[in-house]
Specification:
Blueprint lengths: L20 H9 L2 H23 L7 H20 L6 H14 L2 H14 L35 H24 L8 H20 L3 H14 L3 H17 L11 H10 L1 H7 L2 H21 L9 H12 L10 H19 L1 H12 L5 H14 L1
Helix pairs in contact: 2-3, 2-4, 3-5, 4-5, 4-16, 6-7, 6-8, 9-12, 9-15, 10-11, 12-13, 12-14, 15-16
InterPro entries: Peptidase_M41-like
GO molecular function: ATP binding; ATP-dependent peptidase activity; metalloendopeptidase activity
GO biological process, one term: proteolysis
Amino acid sequence: MQKQPLRPTSLPLALPGPSSSQYDELMDNMSDDEKYNILLQSRASSLVQSLGKKGRGMGGSSRSTSEAFTPLYKLVEEMTDKDMRITLRSFAALIDAASLSRDLNVIQECLLLARRNGVSRAFARSVGALNPPPPLRAASDRYDLSPVPSDARTSELAAGVAALTVVGGALSVEAVGPLLHADTTAASVVLGGAAVMGVWDLTQRKGQELTLALAGINRLFLRDPERDAHVQAATFLSAYLLGLPCFCFSPNVMEAVRMTAQVPAFAETLSSTAGLNRLLVYLLAPVAVEEANYAQLMASDARQARALLQVYMGRGEARGQEGREEEVLLPWAYEEAKRLLRSHSALLERLKQRMESGGATVGDCVALLEGAVASA
């Protein structure tokens, strides 16, 4: 996602051998629910180790991955049939294994089975809370919709590199020239010219070029773990609440298109206008949280939602909408993303802190969301 500060869950409990009297005593004192949950955690942990060793989640066949998860599916179904509730700890282990497979069908199947069991209540919880988009013939300002922030990273990087090359090169010549008895006149002229251009930009253009160059330099060198965790938490939270099984991957067009093509249970829904709207909100959630909390968009990419909309229009799935999709749908989705995150601000902060710690797994994050919803 991808950037994933996530690691697989290991089995939390190592039981003594069957010949141990402590083992017999432990098993006698455990309920059937506890025994089944330990078995589920054990099998999920073994699958995590197997996937990690074989690299199946990084390019193996989807069929072989699905077959590897069949015993887990059957175990969860058996627990549901026997009215045994999966614990959040077991659910976390199940999701860790599913996310490591990188197979959207596996992730979706695990979530559906968990929902039937009753442990998953937060997944797709906010689908019905989205406001309908305004008519495409209407102007977005009539509905008080903010424009999606622009993304000028290409221009920023070019300006930053140019500034570093010119000014940095001239300063280097100024510093090293006397030691080598070299003429530094040209370097002095360059620095003087750069200073004059900077003053002119500040007085005549309100510092537009300097701002662009500084933004590019920030992109090259600035690293902000808190910002990264905040953006990733917004992505994770919005996708999970909107019922998108790609919640543990990076928010980009490729993942969105791959999801609509590979998940049979969601392909028809996500290929519809309503499904497109959910995907747009998901892609703009990281932009919304970064724009609201930081001075510059760096960790998120506002271009992804526009690119997805263009893909849908090119495939004919958004035709007959008068060519105003970008003008209306993108501001609407951006506003809905902001509203979704505001309504779950406390949960977003907890998820950000969990991710920022660097020790959270995908399953840990899902368990946090489900636990918060269950206790609400």
